[in-house]
Structures are given as C-alpha cells and as structure tokens.
C-alpha cells in the first residue's frame, strides 16, 4: 500500500487527520481514501439517484426492468441496448453537475476544510466551468476512445493552475474494469508542454521521457473510494477490458484564484459545447414570433 492511500477512513477521521493528509498530498500530489464516501449521506443519496435515473430510463424508454442490478450492471445493460440514452444521465452529472445531492458533496465542510488546509485560509476558492464530469466506461473497444492518455487536468479546464481534482467511484469494482494510472510526485514538474491526440485529448508531450523518473501506481476505484489529486499530477485512464462490467466515476474540481497565472488571463475557464434545449423549439406553441400587435 502506498503512503498516500489511507484505508478505513470516514469523514470524522479525515477531519481529525488533515495535517498528515495535507503533508502526503503535497509530497505525492495525490491522496486516496478507499470507501470514505460511503460515510457521506449525500454521496449515498447521489448514487441512489443515479440508480433511479438508470431504472427510469431503462423502464420507460426500453421497457425493461433493471432495479435488481448493481449500478455498473445497469450501465452495461443500457450500453448494450441503446448507449445514446446514457447521455441523459451523464449530461446531468457533467459541466456542471445539476443534482442537488451531488452539490452537497461538492461543497461539504470536509471538502472545504481540505482545500483550505492545502491553500491556506486566504485562498479564493472557485470551481472551473468544465470541472464536473460524470464518466461512463462500459465494456467494448469502441468506448476506448474516451480513455485519456497521460495528461494534466489543468489543460482541459483553465481558470487557475492552482487546482485540485477530486474523484469518486460509483460502480462496484471488478478485475479489468480499469481505473487511473498515476505518476507519483509528477505535479512537481509544473505545467507541462502538451499536444493533442487524434481524439482531441491533451497529452503530455514526450511523456515517456518526461515522466520516466516518476513511480507509476495504478488505482482501480470501488464504490465510495475517494481520491484527491493535484491538477498538475500526470495521470491516464486504464481502459475497461472486461466483457460485461462497467466503470462509473464522478470527477469534480476546484481552483484557488489567488494565482498570478490565473490573473494573467482573468480566471477564464475552458468551455466545451454541450447540447442544450431551447424554449422556442420545445414550446413552439407558446412562442409568439413577433413582438408586433397580433392582428385580427
Ligand atoms: O477515469 C478516467 O479514466 C480518467 C478520467 C480523467 O482523468 C479526466 O477526465 O480528466
Ligand atoms: Fe484527468
């Protein structure tokens, strides 16, 4: 077990041990708490809401029953029947996450306590616009394009390079379901040069040699596992190679705006196009095309 993995932690123990946790975070760029989130009632509420969203979509749009399946297996079923429907749920959890229960986790006191322990009481806490991602990784090679090469999160988000990524597991762990590969301590390299891959993903340029001196650690998330890492820590996706199991994770990020680089570009965040809904097309019958007097 690596020195930055803290097993058997709940929220209370997390708060009681902020000093050694912060020390490990600063040294390694990452801290991991297997199962910690299971002690957060808001996390449990959020995951049960994700489960109900799956159940509702599978029942109402596909006329199938999925209530008895574990949440990862619900995704496996949905991806086999009509994968596009998964977007209804990922859209709710992404850019930004719209569920109340999730936001109570995101803005919980213990999260704020950690951010202030790392950045100090004077930190100007913010969240980048594209900071929340609900990621689905169902089985099948055609989903491997969603796996990310070695990268730093900052390039995807902007707002401030003083930035922290938080990550929790939602689905049950199975061998081969994939996870994160982490280059320990690589946050110490600062903002690294990068290029874009054919899938449009940022990749650390020349990472084979840049990261050669850093220890690699692979972590696969189970339900309730909680990870925190520096946005400048290099990491990559480990693909799901199972035939029947899925991986579901939620990622969310914070920035400290008290940073000269952030100030240099006015704290702007990256935005990505997402499909929205327009009143004029969804309620065409209620939209009066002209402000002019209706004649007749
Ligand atoms: O869970 C994964 O595969 C990695 C995702 C990731 O690193 C990201 O979205 O920035
Ligand atoms: Fe990432």
Q: Overview of this structure, please?
A:
The longest helix has 22 residues, at 41-62. The chain has one domain (11-286): Sandwich (Jelly Rolls). α2 crosses α7 (109-119), α3 (41-62) runs parallel beside α4 and α3 packs antiparallel against α6. The protein is built from eleven helices and eleven strands. Strands 1, 2, 3, 4, 9 and 11 form a six-stranded antiparallel sheet that branches. It is α+β, with helices and mostly antiparallel strands and 296 residues long. The chain is globular, with a radius of gyration of 21 Å. It binds 2-oxoglutaric acid and fe (ii) ion. Fe (ii) ion binds at residues 148, 151, 153, 235.
Number of helical stretches of at least 4 residues: 11
What is the CATH topology? Jelly Rolls
CATH domain class: Mainly Beta
* Average pLDDT rating: 96
Following the backbone from N to C, one meets helices and strands in this order, namely HHEHHHHHEEHEEEEHEEEEHH
Q: What are the distinct ligands in this entry?
A: 2-oxoglutaric acid, fe (ii) ion
Described by the principal axes of the CA atoms, the overall outline is globular
Name of the CATH architecture: Sandwich
Task: State the fourth-level CATH superfamily.
Answer: q2cbj1_9rhob like domain
Tally of discrete structural domains = 1
Number of strands: 11
Please describe the biggest sheet, giving its number of strands, its sense, and whether it closes into a barrel: 6 strands, antiparallel
- Give the amount of beta strand, in percent: 15-25%
Q: Spans of 5+ residues with little confidence (pLDDT < 50)? A: none
Structure class: alpha+beta
How many angstroms separate the termini? 79 Å
- The residue fraction in helices comes out at 25-40%
Report the C-alpha radius of gyration, rounded. 21 Å
């Amino acid at each position: 077990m690596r020195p930055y993995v803290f097993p058997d932690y709940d929220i209370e123990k997390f708060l009681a041990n902020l000093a050694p946790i912060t020390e490990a975070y600063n040294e390694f760029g990452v801290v991991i708490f297997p199962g910690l989130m299971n002690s957060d009632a808001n996390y449990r509420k959020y995951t049960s809401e994700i489960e109900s969203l799956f159940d509702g979509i599978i029942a109402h749009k596909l006329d199938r029953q999925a209530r008895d399946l574990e949440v990862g297996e619900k995704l496996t079923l949905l991806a086999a029947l009509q994968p596009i429907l998964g977007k209804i749920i990922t859209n709710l959890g992404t850019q930004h996450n719209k569920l109340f229960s999730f936001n109570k986790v995101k803005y919980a006191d213990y999260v704020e306590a950690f951010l202030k322990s790392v950045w100090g009481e004077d930190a100007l806490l913010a969240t980048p616009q594209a900071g929340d991602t609900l990621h689905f990784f169902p089985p099948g090679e055609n989903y491997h394009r969603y796996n990310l090469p070695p990268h730093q999160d900052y390039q995807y988000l902007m707002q401030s390079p003083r930035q922290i990524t938080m990550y929790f597991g939602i689905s049950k762990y199975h061998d081969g379901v994939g996870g994160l590969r982490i280059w320990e301590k690589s946050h110490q390299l600062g903002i690294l040069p990068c290029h874009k891959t054919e899938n449009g993903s940022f990749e650390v340029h020349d990472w084979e040699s840049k990261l050669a001196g850093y220890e690699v650690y692979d972590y696969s998330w189970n339900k309730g596992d909680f990870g925190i890492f520096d946005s400048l820590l290099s990491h990559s996706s480990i693909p799901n190679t199972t035939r029947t199991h899925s991986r579901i994770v939620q990622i969310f990020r914070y920035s400290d705006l008290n940073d000269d680089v952030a100030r240099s570009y006015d704290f702007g965040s990256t935005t990505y196009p997402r499909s929205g809904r327009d009143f004029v097309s969804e309620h065409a019958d209620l939209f009066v095309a002209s402000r002019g007097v209706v004649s007749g």
